[in-house]
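ERR on first pass: missing label on line 2. Operator R.T. fixed the label and resubmitted. Corrected input:
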Amino acid sequence: MSTWTSSPAPTRYRAVERRVTFAGLLRSEWIKFWSVRSVVVTMAAAFVAIVGFGVLLPLAVGSQLSGPEAAQQGLDATAVSLQGAQLASLIVAAVGVIVIAGEFSTGMVRTSFVSAPGRLGVLLAKAVVLAVTVALVLGAAVFIAFLLGQAVLDRDGAGASLGDDGVLRAVLGNVAMLVGIALAGLGLGALMRNSAGAICTLLAALFVLPLLLMAIPESWGGPTLREYYFANTTTNLIAVQQHADYLSVGAGLAVFAVWVAVLLGAGALSARTRDV
Amino acid sequence: MIEAIGLRKVYGRKVAVEDLSFTVRPGIVTGFLGPNGSGKSTTMRMVVGLDRPTAGEVLVDGKPFQQSVAPLSTMGALLDAKAVHTGRSAFRHLQAMAATAGIPSSRVEEVIDLVGLREVARKRAGGFSLGMGQRLGIASALLGDPSTVMFDEPVNGLDPDGILWIRHLMQDLAREGRAVFVSSHLMSEMALTAEHLVVIGRGRLIADESVATFIDRVHPRGVTVRSPQVQQLHDVVRDAGGSLTPTGDGAFEVVGLSAERIGDAALAGGVALHELTTVRASLEEAFMELTAGSLEYQAHGADPQPPVVAAPTASTPQQPSRTEKEVAR
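pass 2 clean. output:
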């Protein structure tokens, strides 16, 4: 309006500078995460799987327990109540994939990358929101599953408690495994840009490849491959009872973190450099 | 403000954009014109950094858009109506965008009302019609109140009301001193909105000039003259050095003389003129003439063979041709 009075020539528009911030990107990704029904439903499915198996498997195992002696014979009460987390790991892998690959398939990613052209901030914010959400929501599910499962097993006197040796570590280990696999899904989703392809790849990586690795003979380095392979690194992390064939808790967690970081890094590099 | 400097983009072995330089200035609407597949969308994607130029660079307010610290208030872009997650509502979509730069939700409400999406704002964007998708894209572009806006084929899918609305919107935005860059493959649309034109064909710059200059590039077809004194008109025009052909409805088309010369000569010769009109090429004609040979997907029906169905004097009029029968079925 001032242009009418001051000068007839068009003055250049002075936009209010609205800087993109990482806190803003976090808020944005939080809104995005919870405003797509498929993501919410999948998260709910993972929650139900963890808690559901946390009750059902102890019920099934408990009915076969004849007494405390049997309980001593190799039953990992903690692991039994947390079997659902294994299934949930596949579901959170899908969540990780679809929060990014869904953007590529719908075209949303163009809006995201025009709003934050640095791109890496978008991906990092996605990773943080995903990790925190999985840790809180599915972490709660893991604890609920543990407590309900042990209550069931306690009827036969076979239940474990969080204070027992290695139990809290195994419970938290399951949460860490879920967070890591969700992030691996995010990395692979950013790399492959295709939900179905990335989910199938992760499914194969988590459930099929470990079986194939079993067939590799010792002379070909089979045991080492099995130890360091992505899906096997968490074997001891998520259970109280330890297997000598697999990496110890600390080493396993470190190697698992490296696998996840490599996948995330590859996804970030791809998102940063390729045209969308 | 957008400055493209020697832009080049190659996909595999296909050159999409070649040595393209132009400037989009603030305060006016700059039309970006070219046939389908001429590289308009590719160029626009390079402007906002979605595609990386193979060579050259493009600056928005003096620097590459990827380096912008305040992208939403620097440039608002409608690239296509599908840059939305189909499972998210328009409201959440805009809210998520606004959050990145701390834009208040009052502004989200404002742009929803501005584009007229109030009633469907809470519905999933996947169910939107093309026109509603365009409106959401425009809302996204305006969200950060940017100093430059860029619309790729914004009238696609809009109803006549919507087309009129966006025309006025673009002119208003330009009047406020913003740089407005809008692409279209429709010359007539540009003629109504743009002041300046960047024309490309096969990824190369054909023209970067005002709409008026662009039309003047194509030689005037001639001057239509009407007079009751046919013989005197002939003499006057011939004497002045022009040539004259009847157009069939009592008028004549004069070539080789400007309307001014004809008028002056007629006055001097005492010839009454009932009409004196310079016949200009329409923007479409100018466009066709300049982009001929640079059409990516040329229709092959343009050869001299007469079309089968349209031929009014078929050799066997009592028997409908096969094509006609098939159409009738």
